[in-house]
Design a protein that fits this description.
The complex is a heterodimer of chains A (about 450) and B (about 260).
Chain A lengths: L1 H39 L2 E2 L4 E2 L6 E5 L10 E6 L5 H19 L13 H25 L7 H31 L4 H41 L16 H8 L4 H33 L3 H16 L2 H15 L5 H26 L3 H8 L4 H30 L2 H6 L8 H11 L6 H27 L1
Parallel strand pairs in A: 3-4
Antiparallel strand pairs in A: 1-2
Helix pairs in contact in A: 1-4, 2-3, 5-15, 7-10, 7-12, 8-10, 10-12, 11-12
Chain B lengths: L1 H13 L3 H22 L10 H8 L1 H33 L7 H8 L6 H15 L5 H26 L2 H9 L4 H12 L1 H16 L3 H6 L7 H10 L4 H22 L11
Helix pairs in contact in B: 2-13, 3-13, 4-7, 4-10, 6-7, 7-10, 8-9, 10-13, 12-13
The chains are: A mainly alpha (about 450), B mainly alpha (about 260).
């Protein structure tokens, strides 16, 4: 018992030390952040203006045009600028390099393919750049970013508190146990073991959830600041929300939103109708036929989106169809319908098969019987299929990417991808997805609460 | 007279699936056949196995392929190791976990995964994790963990709890009860979880690009590169066909439990 307690204590101490260690390296980072913040306001030789961002990565060369360096704040592209510009930009880039040599800021500079220029420049401007930067830093001060400091110290404090509480309770329990009979001691130990198991299991879940949600929380937090760069806090502001609603996020974003909604609605509606009819048909088929069609139905679900996308892309290429809005809609119907079929089929097997025939016997046309008898029965399945199709369509990237063609059609997913590749997300995406998240969360919780109430 | 009418109706309702079967044929079967067609033809449409030979001789493609499979297997294992305990804790009554938690675990699946990935990259930048192989695994795990937890949770929840009680009554301790009763019963969930994580991971293309600043290329990115270059379209089709074969094998072993996804709402 003592040995186990000791080992737990040791583990906790160890994690505390690790935490302290990260903290130490973090302080170094704060220091460098402070300096980078200063470096930001050094005029960018390319633009001739002060750049108010934290540089993470400086990218140079022809690859700057094509590669997805979203964190790059200085992008020097050889296509847009001549060699003279490259060299001019080099001084500011080189400053960071000097810092990296001092054992800090190593993560800030990324060089690709420009070793020769770099070496040439190294000889020429090393001292100049370094001196200029040092002078600049000496004359300026800015407050460090505090978010991470809080995070690290907070976690350290929580760990310390947990350790203290643990020690306190172990000592207290030991003292209490002395006055008990052995039977009492046994039951209380068992109870405590259960409690501990409960505590450990629940904290595992919550820690996992926290880690899983960390990026999402980050989006939520940074939707309340105006900064163009994701991850750069420039004070609390609701400006992005206003921008989003007044359509100031740029026409590209607006049209991407409209396209996404339109495509999702078209795909969901069509696939609900197609899928419901198909489900009714499949349900009434003979066993072997049904098996074949069900297998065929499961193929688009098993296929990863890249395969679905490529296969449809090849189909449209082979047919000579110009890809655009229509092809994306068709593609979305392809991967949405199977889910509708699967949502409707269980409702069919749950309903009385005779009422449709009864309706026909009473003189209804098949269409009327479908509308008055089948649809009301299948409604819940159709609805859940519809919602599922909607979310699948909104969330899709792979299939859309391959079927959208080169006509400039973008949905939100492809827009984000193009944006992230270019470097830097459109800031209005943050409030947009925060809102989507909140709406989803409230819907799911509402459904859950209602279900619970119904169960009672 | 009446019998004839009934059979008419039955057959007419069966025909309701025909538009869908036609649709499936045109937009699912034909495109898959086309992948094979393009894979075994050259630019001018004549038969060739050059693309297949190229795959096995060109070291870039085959090494990327093996690396992707390796990453996917690793990711599946990590997801299983992290996800199983979570699903177990949520599904077993003894832990008294609130139901809402299960929903919270599925929630991230509903947020655009690209945005999530971008946010993950940002998180790594803030905490100071370098982007590379570790970040790639971490990010993939982020994206696909819910797909592992959900099916396992589903099977565990449907499991007959009295079986565990019976095992305990008969003298099995916790570990033995888990090994002999719970684990075998949750195998279908594990299989479908593995399929649902492995298949998207092995074919992923945008996530890896964002998570590693395009320093690490996975098979999906390679296919994307070739397919979008019109000269190499046929070679891209061959790579897709190889991926398709892998997917086919996986889903064959995993059984088709994909229907689990349909019950999300």
């Amino acid at each position: 018992m003592i040995r186990r307690n000791l080992s737990i204590c040791l583990t906790l101490m160890l994690s505390l030390m690790v935490c302290a260690q990260t903290n130490l390296s973090f302080e170094l980072r704060v220091l460098t952040n402070q300096k980078t913040a200063l470096l930001d306001s050094i005029p960018n030789p390319l633009l001739g203006e002060k750049v108010n961002v934290q540089p993470h990565i400086i990218l140079m060369g022809s690859e700057a045009d094509s590669l997805p360096y979203k964190t790059a704040d200085f992008i020097v592209s050889s296509a847009a600028f001549g060699e003279a510009d490259l060299l001019a930009a080099f001084d500011s880039v080189y400053s960071f390099q000097v810092e990296a040599e001092n054992g800090e800021m190593t993560s800030l500079v990324l060089w690709r393919n420009n070793k020769e220029i770099k070496n040439a420049q190294k000889r020429a401007t090393r001292n100049n750049a370094y001196d200029a930067m040092e002078n600049y830093l000496r004359t300026q001060t800015t407050p460090p970013s505090l978010l991470l400091t809080y995070l690290y110290w907070g976690s350290a404090a929580v760990l310390l508190l947990a350790l203290l509480a643990y020690l306190f309770f172990t000592i207290k329990n030991r003292r209490d146990e002395k006055t008990m009979t052995s039977v009492q001691r046994e039951t209380i130990r068992r109870k405590r073991a259960n409690q501990r198991r409960h505590l450990i299991s629940q904290s595992y879940l919550w820690i996992l959830l926290l880690v899983l949600y960390a990026p999402i929380i980050l989006i939520l937090v940074y939707s309340f600041t105006e900064s163009k760069v994701f991850g750069n806090w420039t004070g609390f502001s609701g400006q992005l929300y206003l921008n989003l609603f007044s359509g100031k996020g740029g026409t590209a974003l607006n049209s991407a939103i409209i396209n996404t909604v339109l495509i999702a609605l078209i795909a969901a509606f069509s696939s609900t109708i197609l899928g419901t009819l198909a489900a009714i048909g499949i349900y009434n088929m003979r066993a072997r036929q049904r098996k074949a069609v069900t297998f065929l139905n499961s193929v688009p679900m098993i296929n990863p989106d890249i395969i679905t996308g490529i296969s449809l892309f090849l189909l449209f290429v082979a047919l000579g169809v110009t890809q655009g809005f229509v092809t994306v809609c068709i593609a979305h119907i392809v991967f949405c319908t199977p889910y509708v079929v699967l949502s409707v089929l269980p409702r069919l097997s749950g309903m009385n098969p005779n009422i449709y025939e009864a309706a026909l016997d009473l003189g209804a046309t098949p269409f009327l019987a479908l509308r008055k008898v089948l649809v009301p029965e299948l409604w819940p399945g159709m609805l859940s299929g519809f919602v599922l199709a909607l979310t699948l369509s909104v969330d899709d990237f792979g299939v859309t990417f391959f079927t959208k063609g080169s006509g400039g059609l973008e949905t939100l997913s492809t827009f984000i991808y193009a944006d992230a590749r270019k470097g830097g997300l459109t800031p209005e995406l943050r409030p947009l997805f925060s809102l989507i998240l909140l709406v989803l969360l409230s819907i799911l919780i509402y459904i859950n609460i209602r279900k619970k109430r119904q169960n009672k | 007279m009446k019998m004839k009418k009934l059979s008419d109706i039955a057959s007419s309702r069966r025909t309701w699936a025909w538009p869908y079967v036609l649709f499936l044929g045109l937009f699912v079967v034909l495109p898959l056949v086309l992948i094979a067609y393009f894979a075994f033809t050259d630019n001018h449409g004549s038969f060739t196995i050059q693309n297949l030979v190229k795959f096995f001789t060109q070291s870039e493609a085959i090494s990327t392929f093996l690396y992707s499979v390796f990453i996917a297997v690793l990711n599946t294992i990590i997801c299983l190791l992290l996800g199983y305990p979570a699903a177990y804790i949520m599904a077993m009554k003894e832990f008294r976990t609130p139901q809402t938690l299960a929903i919270l675990f599925i929630m991230p699946m509903w947020i655009n995964f690209l945005l999530r990935t971008v946010a993950t990259v940002e998180l790594f930048n803030m905490v100071g994790i370098p982007l590379g192989e570790g970040a790639l695994l971490f990010g993939l795990c982020y994206d696909y963990l819910p797909f592992m937890i959900y099916p396992i949770y589903n099977t565990l929840q449907k499991m007959d709890y009295s079986l565990i009680e019976a095992a305990q009554d008969l003298g099995a301790n916790r570990a033995k009860c888990f090994r002999k009763v719970v684990l075998p019963l949750s195998m279908p969930g594990i299989y479908s979880g593995i399929v649902m994580v492995f298949m998207p991971t092995v074919s992923t293309f945008a996530i890896a690009e964002l998570l590693t600043h395009n320093n690490i290329k996975l098979f999906g990115s390679l296919i994307q590169d070739y397919i979008t270059t019109s000269d190499l379209l046929n070679y891209g089709a061959m790579l897709s066909l190889i991926l398709l074969v892998i997917i086919g094998i996986t889903s064959f072993f995993g059984g088709d439990e994909e229907g689990e996804k349909g019950g999300l709402i």
